[in-house]
Amino acid sequence: MIYFGEDGDTLLLSYVPERWNGARWLDEKFKQQNEVTLRRTFTFTIKDLFSEEGEEDDDDEVRTFVLGSVEGGYNRINKDVLGLKHDLLIERSIPLHTKIFIAHRDISIFRKVDSLIDEPIIVGGDAEGAIPLEDFEKLLKSFPTSTELNHYAHSRISRVLKDYFGTLSDAEEKLKHYLEKKETLEALHGKSLLADFELKKFEYIYDELISMLDTADSYAEKDWQTKILGLLLFVFPKYIAVLENVHIKDFYSNVDKATNRYIDLMLVGANGSVDIIEIKRPRINSLLSRKKYRNNYTPRGELSDTVMQAEKYLFHLSKWGRAGEKEISQKRKSELPDGIELKITSPKAIILLGRDNDFTDEQRFDFEIIRRKYANMLDIMTYDDLLRRLENIIVMMKRQVPEGNEQ
What we know:
By secondary structure, the chain is an alpha+beta fold. The protein folds into two domains: 2-143, no CATH class; 169-400, no CATH class. 42% of the residues lie in helices and 20% in strands. The chain contains twelve helices and 15 strands. The protein has helices at residues 24-33, 79-82, 98-101, 109-114, 133-142, 146-165, 170-182, 190-214, 221-235, 301-331, 361-373, 383-400; strands spanning 2-7, 10-15, 35-38, 42-45, 63-71, 74-77, 88-91, 102-103, 107-108, 122-123, 239-250, 259-269, 274-279, 349-352, 378-381. Helix 7 packs antiparallel against helix 8 (190-214) and helix 8 packs antiparallel against helix 12. The N and C termini lie far apart (59 Å).
């Protein structure tokens, strides 16, 4: 068991082993490797051992280590103990407990966070860049439990197996059952039959999207983009083709020669006009800051970064002009209908990311202002926007299906 304590301004971690041979195994470990790691999270060297003056170090029951220090309103945890790039600061009002440091299956929480950023991690308090306590508690809850990890692993394995064995999702099973049932029904009036099929198509897209959002973390980013894009083409039928990894020229980053850039996904309309789309997996709190800046909710990093990336793609694409139209058309000719010519005519970008289902009214208002700021060139859409759009389409289509035909 691990316990936290203090001795003056020194933070301590005490380890009480549950093994039959007490704490002696730690001493043997130090002799062999000069360091020991507890719960795959806390790493100490023999120099970190703590003993009060006059106290013997041969106690079999407990070993105490120096974890860090107390500085002002923060506990400062030694970066080497946690394997971080910077010391960790935790506001003094937050009680130290293993649940703060260790997630299920002994996952080091702060090491995971540290691998994604290049600045000190500060939890709570008024220091610049500090994670508000409310957000930190949400972060802790976002780490999956053992059951969830098993579920995600099962989902990912099932998805791979489906590619080889043709297994259908629940939404696909529903649509398949409907189509099989339709074969036994009497022929409907052409318009009614078409409306009925369109309704089932959008219900399938809605059900499939709900299922995907429930297990979003089990998808690799590329797999997620591919699957979502397949659904989006049904929702936005004006696009007839998708070009992946499109090479474009950047004439501004390097004054001596053009720089090669690559757009992940380019959409092609029926008349050849092109737009781009950025699809991100829905991540927790990826849209707005939880902490207000001058009484406003501001865009978070992922939203700002994606907007900037899309704006630069649009800029370089437009500047390339007619030469770009010809080059892309020639290189991707085999992926386009015969005779179609690509047109770079005021292209726009669609950005799909994040969830807004937990927004307050104030957050929703600020987010709408952000979206309208870019509306002339960007369509920023959340996954909940997409769900609402599908719901409205389904409601209107149900009104068009004659009573008694809906199955």
